[in-house]
Write a structure and sequence with these properties.
Two copies of one chain form a homodimer.
Chain A: E1 9-14, E2 26-31, E3 38-42, H1 50-59, E4 66-70, H2 79-97, E5 104-108, H3 118-131, H4 137-143, E6 152-158, E7 166-173, E8 186-191, H5 197-209, E9 226-231, H6 241-261, E10 269-277, H7 280-291, H8 294-301, H9 307-314, E11 327-330, E12 333-337, E13 340-341, E14 354-360, E15 366-373, H10 377-385
Parallel strand pairs in A: 4-5, 8-9, 10-14
Antiparallel strand pairs in A: 1-2, 2-4, 3-9, 6-7, 7-8, 10-15, 11-12, 11-14, 12-13
Helix pairs in contact in A: 1-2, 2-3, 5-6, 7-9
Family (chains A, B): Belongs to the ArgJ family.
Site (Cleavage) (chains A, B): 183-184
Catalytic activity (chains A, B): L-glutamate + acetyl-CoA = N-acetyl-L-glutamate + CoA + H(+); N(2)-acetyl-L-ornithine + L-glutamate = N-acetyl-L-glutamate + L-ornithine
């Protein structure tokens, strides 16, 4: 179902020949309305790919007729020519839809620093436009994969009853997290509920802040990350805004979880749950520092409940805490109490794929959870061999 | 030669039984004067091991009679009992030297979260005190190793002629860098030149700022890092302060280089040379961000001159630069010019162990170099298996 679960959307995923072989590498998602309100969030990296620079301008208008996405090349660090390539792609989509390029977003993912094969890409856009269909969501989700081993899709129903019901659907790609430098995260979320661009913007920022923004598999931030939210209004339903935000957050969380499980080379999904923080910012800061400790990630890979590496990472932050009041549990066993040895570490069962590290800062009532993965030889292998 | 290269110092390195087997694990370095001015720099981690908390207090006095160091246990996150253990160790050294514990520093390295075996340790201190010798520097350097495959020592001669000559000697351990959470860096530097504690403090801070502080092998910061500088004044030479600072910096740089080459699992030594920065801070910030990109470190391991991952890391900083004015050379070939593709990447020879990545921010005259290593399956293996 993916992005075509909501009414008013058609999609396609085709093989344009950007990637070697016959794999799908180009996706098109079109909003047939009646509305076309939209919002987007983009990478915070200051080195932004051409499609990000383009799509940020487009989304400033708060409207989107279509988004075209390609895998097989990030079109990042490609200079003015790369930007022209993105522009030409949007113009091609616009011409085929007899619409304005100013309402066509572009997303790219793949290697940095190489121009896209524009002849193949533009021909692929024609093929995709011809194949646009109400059931094209799965093919589109397949076409945006790079090192992703599976397609990531999600959908949720909102609204009280038959008449007031609406859908939220989504697709994503990313074999790392919000921000791996190559395995960029792209995500398109659609809804047939009726909302304004401003409403979508608020909802999207809130939803991504507690989902994609709290995934941190390798601390690397992409040049291409893009999350788009498009509304067709085709259900004719004006949703309750709180409920709608909850549905979009659920779709984002579901997709984020799929990204985490499929992260490059990962064998463990690690939830870092920070409690007792003086503020939510502190909790996120601590969670992120722990998620980025390569030593801890190696230990978890080795099924070693190494709380010392947790404390060492917490100690690098400026969050509010006293070292001798820190408590750490791994999979429910409080193996560090008061900054020193706690319960018996042999009681910790490290065998499940899911590992939860709970860090109690003993400094207040706030909490946050950051998700990461372990660091494995497979990650090193995959990222040593990527472009050569 | 190591720490006993300068006059006025004796040292010993013995097996106390803290580590399994018969490996040396306890070192003692004693300053016989006539002076005992000293300075220290310590980890910035807020979770500090007991010996760091103790030695910081001791060094506040600017004087040091001796330093006792153990491998086999970090004595970090061990609560008030751990601090008492450190205190007892200093008292033992003081009693044997008939001196004050308030001028005895303590350093520990090894696993976090476990108490030290104090009976063995205190007996080892006695053995070490009995073995103190003018040629004990090598044994001391050997005794502080953990996962270090070799001892790290260095010495330089300063002063103009025979009469005005003085020595600077040093030893270090650390299988990562200033700050791997377990493979803590410890370093003791000695000199027979005559200086005050304040002078030593200024020199040590300047020297470490451009050497150990610019090593970043895995971004992890230890709970135990300690660098000490001790002056005996036994040469009777008042050195030229600028020259002395240069000599201490050379010893630190030499030891830092040895740490880098011996870093856990590393197969490449990577120098990240940032030029054209608006300020030295910007240059260091950019160098550190690039040094911490696990994706880039994997690429270098795979001998892939992946400048896209360099730019993606630069883009995460708030340093002054324009993305389309960034230039990147790897081993002398400018493969990225103006933020886009530059010279032919096939010209880059990635086969040497030493890899230099030059990043031109085109924003000013300042430069800095940060040193790191590649990320390898061997690193993952070593750090997955460390404590289990």
């Amino acid at each position: 179902m993916s992005v075509t679960a909501p009414l008013g959307f058609r999609a396609a995923g085709v093989s344009a020949g950007i990637k070697p072989g016959r794999a799908r590498d180009l996706a098109l998602v079109v909003n047939d309305g009646p509305n076309r309100a939209a919002a987007g969030v983009f990478t915070a990296n200051r080195v932004k790919a051409a499609p990000v620079l383009w799509s940020q301008q487009v989304l400033a208008g708060g409207r989107l007729r279509a988004v075209v996405l390609n895998s097989g090349g990030a079109n990042a660090c490609t200079g003015p020519e790369g930007f022209q390539d993105t522009h030409a792609t949007a113009e091609k989509v616009a011409a085929l839809l007899e619409d304005s390029a100013g309402e066509v977003a572009v997303c790219s993912t793949g290697l940095i620093g190489e121009r896209l094969p524009m002849d193949e890409l533009l021909a692929g856009v024609e093929t995709a436009a011809a194949q646009l269909a109400r059931d094209g969501g799965l093919a589109a989700a397949d076409a945006i994969r790079t090192t992703d081993t599976v397609s990531k899709i999600s959908f949720k129903r909102g609204g009280a009853d038959e008449d007031g019901a609406y859908m939220v659907g989504g697709m994503a790609k990313g074999a790392g997290m919000l921000a791996p430098a190559l395995a960029t995260m792209l995500c398109v979320i659609t809804t047939d509920a009726e909302l304004t661009g401003d409403e979508l913007d608020v909802v999207l920022r809130s939803a991504t802040a507690v989902t994609f923004d709290r995934l941190d598999t390798d601390g690397c931030m992409s040049t291409n990350d893009t999350v788009l939210l498009m509304s067709s209004g085709a259900s004719g339903v004006r949703p309750d805004l709180d409920e709608f935000e909850q549905k979009v957050t659920e779709v984002c969380a579901d997709l984020a979880r799929q990204l985490l499980v499929d992260a490059e080379g990962a064998s463990k999904a690690i939830a870092i749950e920070v409690v007792g923080a003086a503020g939510e910012d502190d909790a996120v800061k601590v969670g992120r520092a722990v998620a980025r400790s390569t030593l801890l990630k190696c230990a978890i890979h080795g099924e070693d409940p190494n709380w010392g590496r947790v404390l060492a990472a917490v100690g690098t932050t400026d969050a509010e805490f006293e070292p001798d009041r820190l408590n750490v549990a791994i999979n429910g066993i409080w193996i560090c109490r008061g900054g020193a040895v706690g319960d018996d570490r042999d009681k910790v069962d490290m065998s499940p794929r899911d590992v939860t590290i709970t860090i109690d800062l003993s400094a207040g009532p706030h909490t946050a959870t950051v998700h990461t993965t372990d660091l494995t030889a497979a990650y090193v292998h995959e990222n040593s061999a990527y472009s050569s």
